[in-house]
Amino acid sequence: MNQQLREQILTIVARVPKGRVTSYGRIAKMTDGASARMVGAALRSLPDGHGLPWQRVVDASGRIADHSGADRQRRLLREEGVLLDSRGRVPVDYFWP
Predict the structure, then answer these.
(1) CATH no. for residue 82?
(2) What is the per-residue pLDDT across 17-57, written as a single tens digit (0 to 9) for each?
(3) Which of 42-52 are b and which e, b meaning 16 or more Cβ less than 10 Å from the residue's Cβ?
(4) Which domain holds residue 77?
(5) From the record, what ranges are coiled-coil (predicted)?
(6) What does pTM read for this prediction?
(7) What is the CA radius of gyration of the chain?
């Protein structure tokens, strides 16, 4: 992935409002050619202490991806007021834009 595309992805992630989420695919559609997988790769490569709200990115169905930070992601979202439904997914009402 080129640096310009990576910067587009990270700029969009930075704009996701507190208490809202978006999907990898929605972010990809806002760029000049990224795929949902590229969005995930860009987020996985963030250095420690980066400060971007990575926790606000979920899959299209509202599911939190199965990764080592999933419990932390759930906790951070809960702290922002994002509640998961009975299936463990973020309800569509929380999606941005």
Answers:
(1) 1.10.10.10
(2) 999 999 999 999 999 999 999 999 999 999 999 999 999 99
(3) bbeeeeeeeeb
(4) 3-94
(5) none
(6) 0.95
(7) 13
